[in-house]
């Protein structure tokens, strides 16, 4: 974990009242928090109170959690349709997230945006939007303003692999490189665009070459290994922060649930069963759990901490549920 | 008008004066776009700004209209006031995703937590063979999308005032600037920093036989027709809708109640265009007509290039005069061939090539 400052990860842990754990335990618990929020949404979704399409990030948790250990409050994050993890890992208010999904006035966008339009300016989570690549140039514009205003903070733009098919990405990384803009593009490559695999959509090439061709620092990593994400994140975030140049990180990961909605999609038979089996063995929480010291994972305090997170989620849900519907 | 800050100026000088004032007074403002630092300076509308304010305030952009619009929105989100310039509206079409999906909705969809004070200037070309992709007037598209403020002033004063006003707004503003207005001359009061009227009354008389509503450059054609009609002792009322997303129709309704005869002239396509939208609003608000109203706009096909084809494409002063005759039943015929001119060049001084 970064030594220098109070990080976004520290903020989330503070909100969850978690302290005095090993780094591995903190990473695990942060991922557990993101996952349990998503599972809570999935569990409640069939009740019909959340009238907004939800793109749950189960399986992707290691990426925002690993990066949040190196982001500070002043750093800004923008995201896409699968944004809950990005929002939560930056410290976004859980009640405001639940409120937004439930169409309440306390929702982060006052019920106007739903799951696909999250915002929490108090933690510099600026915006998420579902049009592919939609927030990518906007993030670059914000990072450009940091350059023009001489601010030290950086901007992180999360995008999915299908954005590599959108012209706006290439326009943006070209501009970012030309003007030396302090922005980190994070590509979550789950190889799926709704139900279509990457090989039907893109030519075979090393993804990092896309970034290199535009003069960005570019690397690819395993997005399910939170330690690896954290190390890559530290290196790239420090690079963007110190060199004031853009970089792009590609993380391979796995979408555990259906594209949109609370369920799985394995019964649709479009997934490669071998690949699914392999990825399920490499679930980010399972991998992280294996790294925990036995003294930690078998201690009573471990289940207490998880219960503590569960209670935090439940009480946030109840508060959101008890609040008023959005007003005109 | 009196006072030290009043003077005669061209339309393009008014645009330049407004942007200079914004750049001088608001240190967070900037101008960006393709060719904003070029010697031709977008027909002179940004002339000298790069030299005066430097490359941190006047930013040349790559040919990436969509991303640059998003970047402008990002800059606005971080406290800047970007003025984004498109030498032709047709190129701005490349940015419709960012304009419509993001910019127009930015404030609304995040519960008014963000602001988007982006000013987008779009120039509409005409004549000298501008053809299908250098001449489109699609202001009706931006009127239709909630979230934009849309202005298409024809006078130097109104473009000056509305640009300055736009720099104080939290919402995005689109300016539709007709190229043929650039060299027109008018008086401006430099202290008038807000748009005085959303609809400008150019001419109102108690004896008027016809009410004419105009948009952008068509105002000039109508005022020319008005001068010709005056020589025949025929009066008309002329109202220019300057702001298109929020219509101020009160004065027009009063006039129609008097004349019962309405002509709307537009620079865009007649079908499903701004003229039709204005007519619908007037009708919904109870306007009554003695004869079916006339909407004069472009026909329902793309702009042709050859001057012989363009001649019948753009409604001329003559067609306006004929519509007045038709609606008012006055017995005058207009046979001066000059009345049908101006389809391909705004005047003899115009020698191309844009």
Primary descriptors:
heterodimer, A: 328 residues, alpha/beta, 6-stranded parallel sheet, two-stranded antiparallel ribbon, 46% helix, B: 354 residues, Rossmann fold, 13 strands, 33% helix
Structure described in brief:
The complex is a heterodimer of chains A (328) and B (354). Chain A is 46% helix and 11% strand.
Any chance you could write out the topology, listing elements then pairs?
The complex is a heterodimer of chains A (328) and B (354).
Chain A: H1 8-15, H2 23-44, H3 62-68, E1 76-79, H4 84-89, H5 94-101, E2 125-128, H6 136-149, E3 155-160, H7 167-178, E4 183-189, E5 192-193, E6 196-197, H8 198-201, H9 207-213, E7 217-222, H10 226-243, E8 247-252, H11 273-281, H12 284-291, H13 294-297, H14 300-322
Parallel strand pairs in A: 1-2, 1-3, 3-4, 4-8, 7-8
Antiparallel strand pairs in A: 5-6
Helix pairs in contact in A: 2-12, 2-14, 3-10, 5-14, 6-7
Chain B: E1 6-10, H1 11-25, E2 29-33, H2 49-53, E3 58-60, H3 65-77, E4 81-86, H4 89-92, H5 96-102, H6 106-109, E5 119-124, H7 139-144, E6 149-151, H8 156-166, E7 173-178, E8 185-189, E9 199-203, E10 210-214, H9 218-231, E11 236-241, H10 250-259, E12 262-269, H11 274-284, E13 294-298, H12 307-310, H13 317-328
Parallel strand pairs in B: 2-3, 2-4, 4-5, 5-7, 6-7, 10-11, 10-12, 12-13
Antiparallel strand pairs in B: 1-8, 9-11
Helix pairs in contact in B: 1-8, 3-5, 9-13
